[in-house]
Design a protein that fits this description.
mainly alpha; 170 residues; elongated; 2 domains
């Protein structure tokens, strides 16, 4: 095969580079643009750090006074706040118990204290839910206007649905 002079070889290489450079840069730009558009859909594989669990302390009660349905509404709002606080505290206690079981720390008496706290808070949740449902039924029987009672009825229905999900079916 005949040798190609060096000058021609360089010209061919430059010609190939001239074509390859725009094609490669176009592909690179297309890749970057595609990754920018796809990023929100793909998300990160690294989980975001979870904030530490917190306990909800009882807030200030709404005063139960006034004419008409005002005291009943205040009672219902206090009951709803108690149920929500109980739900939050049970979830926090269960999260702490799960974490303790996975880590196998603490052991012994501290673990039993966490477990006893979960049991106590579940009982508190049950009593708060029962009391709220009873208050809603009592207000309905007394003839409280439907517009005022509707949000509390919705919440009591939510409690009943939540209970149905919690109880194991045979």
């Amino acid at each position: 095969m005949p040798q190609i002079p060096r000058t021609r070889r360089n010209r061919r290489a430059l010609a190939c580079r001239g074509v390859a450079l725009p094609v490669n840069s176009f592909l690179f730009v297309a890749f970057l643009a595609g990754s920018v558009y796809a990023d929100p859909y793909l998300g990160s594989r690294i989980p975001k750090p979870q904030p530490p669990p917190t306990w909800m302390e009882p807030g200030e009660q709404i005063p139960i006074e006034g004419p008409g349905w005002t005291p009943v509404v205040a009672l219902l709002e206090n009951g709803e706040a108690r149920v929500r606080r109980a739900w939050h505290n049970v979830a926090t206690a269960q999260q702490l118990l799960t974490k303790a079981r996975i880590r196998r720390y603490p052991r012994g008496e501290p673990l039993f204290e966490i477990r006893d706290r979960v049991i106590f808070l579940e009982a508190e949740r049950g009593s708060a839910e029962n009391e709220f449902i009873m208050l809603v039924e009592q207000a309905r029987r007394e003839g409280m206007p439907a517009g005022t009672l509707s949000s509390f009825m919705d919440f009591s229905d939510q409690i009943l649905r939540d209970r149905a999900e919690r109880t194991p079916s045979p």
